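Re: your question from the hallway

Yes, I did run it. Sequences:
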Amino acid sequence: MKLQSLRLIINSVRKFINMGAYTRLWNMTKKLHAVDIASLMDHLIFREKIILFKVLNEKEKRKAAEVISELEPQDAAEILKELPVEQIASCFHLTPSDDVPPVLQYLPEELRDSVLAKMGEKPSEEIKGLLHYEEETAGRIMSQDFYALNQNTNVSDAITAMQLEGEVESAFYLYVVDDENHLVGVVSIRQLLFARPNSKLKDIMNTDLITVNTKTDQEEVARKVADYNLVAIPVLDKENNLLGVVTVDDVIDVLDQEATEDIYKMVSLDTSDRIQDTPFKSIKKRLPFLLFSLLTASLSPFVVNYFKATIEQAVTLAVFMPLVAALGGISGNQTIALMVREIATGQTDWLSSRKALAKEIIVGLGNGIFIGFVIAFISYFLIGNIYIGIILGGAIIINLFVAASLGTLIPLLLRLLHLDPALGSVNLLTMCTDTIGILSFLGLGTLFLNYIS
Amino acid sequence: MKLQSLRLIINSVRKFINMGAYTRLWNMTKKLHAVDIASLMDHLIFREKIILFKVLNEKEKRKAAEVISELEPQDAAEILKELPVEQIASCFHLTPSDDVPPVLQYLPEELRDSVLAKMGEKPSEEIKGLLHYEEETAGRIMSQDFYALNQNTNVSDAITAMQLEGEVESAFYLYVVDDENHLVGVVSIRQLLFARPNSKLKDIMNTDLITVNTKTDQEEVARKVADYNLVAIPVLDKENNLLGVVTVDDVIDVLDQEATEDIYKMVSLDTSDRIQDTPFKSIKKRLPFLLFSLLTASLSPFVVNYFKATIEQAVTLAVFMPLVAALGGISGNQTIALMVREIATGQTDWLSSRKALAKEIIVGLGNGIFIGFVIAFISYFLIGNIYIGIILGGAIIINLFVAASLGTLIPLLLRLLHLDPALGSVNLLTMCTDTIGILSFLGLGTLFLNYIS
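Structure:
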């Protein structure tokens, strides 16, 4: 939806709510896609959200449930809390099963239990089942709504069975199982359409299966779906029983989330930090990181302090100190960005890592030598002292070498420690390039002190 | 494919190629998915790639074409160049139409023309048509393979027509057009399966269409598919004629590419820079940016130079200078990361931008005051001079305020100038926080000079 039309709709929605013109409110919103209603709600105040949702829920329960699916789980829970238990339960009945647990988590425990009790045994067991899987695994994000039939079913019976089962959200495949409920093949719905009615599923099914299990990390699930161009991937347990499917729309959410996390972790930002948070919430999230950075950033003052006597005799060194530090940081950040995306999107094993390290070191040295000479030349031109140029150029060569090496090694080491390769990498690198840059610059300065003071 | 098994397969493939055991090579690779063959090729030398591809192309043309789709366009072109023109043309016939133009671009012009001539008029016109659209638009990434039928067709005729048209890669929808070929609705293939054979398409179609046009930026296309949970989106011309579809697998590639670009552009890295490039290529790509950074990073030495007399009298100031600069950069980078992802994934208009700016400024000031006091306290403790603490704390409060403001404003201003909001943002910010941080620190130092020297 274009921003201009969104603005118009928000204004009308507000007006209708304030006037109590709920029929007009419904007439306006019923034409909107659930996604648009959800993004519209982000711009309303709480009271308005509740009224709009209650109107939707009264007029068209399915649409209300769709809106719940599209909202952020916290927001959805806050709205549902305002409804009677029966209405929450009936709304969850209409929501795809994989979207229910995230919302449930944000409901107060007592309310959650009564909602589950109201939902009946089977759905409530299913949902509780999903909650058992660890966060960020295939089990947690899979949907339990899918078509699965025995391999000996024929095509026309399969079509009837699927029709009886009713609408399954975004189902493009029929999964085929054997008598023990093990997944043995998959048939696209298009194939069913073209197949002879009396062919058996096992004769038309595709047995070249790409699957994950319930414990597979959601990022790996997403990469598989992306690499093999799938629209859904089946989730199996240890015995090859089909438990659910992860659909491509959830995969896109995971990829978006991981891309955000890569950037956030690089700069040591809490992955839950959002522009829309209250300032107080953000301060609370960022202060610990800043205090930690204060610690890491305090290394360089110690180095400078050590060389105080040198600086006292040649203050010109203090002038160029920030330049050496800055260039190291800038060029190291480039290597970090490359490595973080390489690890996130590709397959990086130790062989390719060694190659990457060797390559980045050559690049760092090459750039360092070039930039070092340029700086040496310029500073000689400006100051007239060749030694300042040599010291500055030398320190920059050293620092760009360090930046390239650490820019490659920090993400690799973080991964080796089973941490996210991006985690705080920019800060760690800056600490090192600041410290080593200043150390080599002032160290060289001390060596050549007689020529520059 | 797991890395261990990939390693094993690479070794066998190499062995078979060196032995000239092409039947065993084919027996080994025919079981692999085209995606895996493509990623296997990344690890082979050029001569091996060519042999493997020629074997595939001889044994199973469709699989060879699938591998071409999965390879990076440059790599695919380099392999195809080694084949006779007729074989390239017949390979392109089997490749989805949206995957052909990117590969064609990398073929030498003469070869490209003879391949197109060999392909026959219709396909070659179609492909030339795609090449007319600008890069990174829906027109360029759309596929021209889709099912579209007139709204008055009944379901059983539609099924027959689709069957006659044959297999269409990843088609999950049948598009419905009126007599003027305008898109009027869409029917999922699942709906066809369940519909009565004599119902007309116009009676069962969904008219709530979400579409893009040929000129829509690929990032906007991807966002729409992601937001509305689609698996394909129709691409229309100005007259609402259906020209193609963009499928979700291409959308995932676009989202991956955009996420990489966000990170790369933040640190001023060329978006085509890759770990696998030769060092020389990377040096050539990164040097211009580093030279530019040298220019921006040279601002702070001028500031320090201006305050040389102050530093001569109070060298302690030089000690803490890097700390003030570093903390500004660290906290500003956080705001930049937030804003870049916010703009990339969400709808940021001027109203929400103003809110974001106000919020980040409060956060910057809040964190600044807290960190400032901590530093003031610690430095007083270490050095015993309360004024050093005041100067340091004050400069940090100023610099974190500046970092928060500019961290929000730089991405917004870049977008206002129709540039990528991430473009060089980290370097621009570091330049500002380094300069303003040092300026305020040494400025305060000069004011209180009598108390600290």
